Structure formats: C-alpha cells, structure tokens
Sequence to fold (445 residues):
Amino acid sequence: MARKHVVTTINGDECDFLCESDETLLSVIRNQLRLTGTKEGCSTGDCGACSVMLDGRLVCSCLTLAVEAEGKVIDTIEGMSEDGNLHILQRKFIEHAALQCGICTPGFLIAAKALLERNPNPTETEVRYWLAGNLCRCTGYHKIVEAVMDAATEMRG
Amino acid sequence: MIMDFHAPSTIDELSSLLSNSSEKKHLLAGGTDLLVQMQSQIIEPSTVIDIKNISEMMEIKDDIDGFYVGAAVSGMTIIEHQAFSDTWPGVIDGVKLIGSIQIKGRASMGGNLCNASPAADSTPAMIASDAKAIILGSKGKRDILVEDFILGPGKNILKSNEVLLGIKFPKKRNNSSGAYLRFTPRTEMDIAVAGVGVNISLGDKFQIEHAKVSIGAVAEKALVAEAAAKVLIGKKVDEEVIEKFVSEVRNLARPIDDKRGTVEFRKQVIGVLAKRALNIALERISHG
Fold:
C-alpha cells in the first residue's frame, strides 16, 4: 500500500509528509523532518523525552502515530525561542544549570511551558507532579524545579 | 506486514469497517496501550481504526438523565470538564491517577476500561458510580453495567464486531459524593497495588441511604463489594460501622502475591483505603 500523505502545521508552518501507517510521530519528526530537538528515550511513554504539543495538549510523540497528525497543530522545542531569543524557561534552565547530558531537556521545557500556560503561579508540589512524566537521570530534579519556579516568577512580571 | 489504517468520521462508517471482514481489527483511541504493544512487537496489527474523528466518541454531554462521556475522550479533557468534575469527584480521583500528564493527554477512560487491567484506576470509581458501558454493535446499541463489562485480566465482553461507544453515568443522587483511593509505592507513575472506589448518599438524618463500593487490583477484575456496602446502608457512620465495613471489604478481596504486594499486605491495605475513601466521600458531601 502507498505511504500516507499527511498535512499538519508544525511550529506555525504548514508541513506535509509521507509516512508508513504504523510509523510514530516521533520517527517522522526526527528522521524525516530532521527536527532532532525532540528526543527518543524509552519509546513506551514512560520518560517524556519525546514530549510535543498536539493541538495544545502535551503528549508523547512516541505513542502517537504520524497519520494521526493529519490536520493537527504540532509544537516542538524548535519553535520555543522567538526571533532568535531564548524563551524565559530555556534561559532559566541555563542559569540554574538544570541540565547535564541534555537528552531530557527538550521534553522538560515543552512540559514546563504547558504547565505555565495553564497555571502561571504553580507551587513546587504542582511543578513536581506536572513534571512526573519526564525523567532525568542526571540532575536529581531539584535544579529543574528551581528553574521552572524562577521562570514562572519572571513570566508573571 | 503493511498496516491498514482507517479514521472513520461517522458511526456508520465505523460499523461497516467492523463488519467488513473477519480479520482482527485494533481500535485506536489514545493509543497509550496499543502503541506500547506495537513498539514492543507484542502485537503486529493488520488493521488499525482510529475512532477519534467520530463525534460520539469524543464528546462529554450533560443530559437530563446524566453525563455521557465518549469512549475516546482524553483524561485531561475529562479532568478539565468543570461540571463533570463537580458531579463525579470520585471518578476524577481515578482518572487523575492514570499515568503522567502526557499519558492523560491521550489516554481515555474508555481505553482504561476496554484494556481491562485488574489495576485500572478509573474502573472502581466508575463501578461505584453505577456507570454503564454503551456498546455499539451491528444491531445497534446496548448497555451494560461497567462491572459486567470486564471479564478478567485483559478480557472484556465486546464481540469482534462491537465497540465501546461511551460511558453513561446516572443522574447524581441528592446529597451524594464519591472518592477513589489507591496504594502505590511511588506517588506518581505507578500501578495500583490496591484501589477502592466509593459512592454514597446521605438521608436527612445523616444516615447512609445508598452505598456502592468497588475494589480494584485485589482480584482478577474490579469487584463490587456488595456485602461491605450493605453494612453501611441505613446507618450513621461511627467507629463500629467502619470496623464492620473494613472487615467486609477485606473478606471480599482475593488478591494474588506478586512483585507489587503480597496477599496479606493487599488485604490489609484495601481495608485502610476503603475507610479513608468513605471518609473523603462523607467530607465531600458535607462541603456540598
């Protein structure tokens, strides 16, 4: 059978691609569209490294079929900075040294941005629960939580 | 093998796809179970049908006779639905415990039910709420209580040409509320070692008028703890009633030993959870 033609919007730009019907969205984003900021970790929805926004919902792109993206709006880490300026969350991750190897970082940033859009003033507990689906084996999480809390303060102005 | 993929947009299209041939078809709602099984090559589906373009699968409706939640509505959509959350807080307790925010962004209550894990977090709360599964088959719709929908681990009552359309909740009783509690070694991203869903209503003298209790992860499927609920009916909750209630819950549990908990531990903890869930439900009633 022919490959499927899928039309989506990725990071604000219309984008179409051809994919196998059993191919994951993660595979297309990384291997075809070459948006390699989104990482592959566990491939079973446990680690959150592949987090993207799908029609405004935080999801694991490893557990989404690429064909499901038809007509949908996808946002990845590549769309997070604006006009070459880092997003406040990205800046705070650097300031607080909230990353070491960096594999989990794009997923954490996407997830944290989704949290702050819903809840601009989260408690530390709320941040920790929201980010429970993102695993980091380097930092011990503390600096990530600090960076998110600090970003929230600055974003509230 | 090349996988055949369909995304019907109406019930009729779905029905004709299901009756099309006898070969096994896999339905895709949130995909958080299906995709994991595909990735790990436990299954290699020849046909996948995405049900998320069908409006009946994706809507939450507040009818005169109660709420209807489409089988593919995501957990986050349910949690964010204010009127549903206010009406069925016990069900929301359960849905909130299904995986991470990412998982709940896709995973549905319908999928949790169809997947039929004995430890499914939304199931005991649905059972306690007297929810019914609305099943669509070649001869139209039928409904069945959620407790009768599940047959055992990974097994549900659906025939090959049938599909779960949604979950129907009854009209909420006056002066009623519910709660779901589970035990897990970790607070997030874990599977229930034991879980209890409770739904109760109070009469004008604060006696329990109606009670339904369901226990999860302590048998091959979520059970209705009828004998435990009977202890409560007509009584005002005091220490003696709670003690009898807890002991009935423990009697009904028939758990297995596994890496997550022993029989002895599960029987102990299910009683503690039942008592706490009952107290949360009572507290919720008193806070209106």
Observations:
- Chain B has a mean pLDDT of 96.
- Chain B touches chain A through 29 residues (CB under 8 Å).
- Chain B has 13 helices and 14 strands.
- Residues 263-286 of chain B form the longest helix (24 residues).
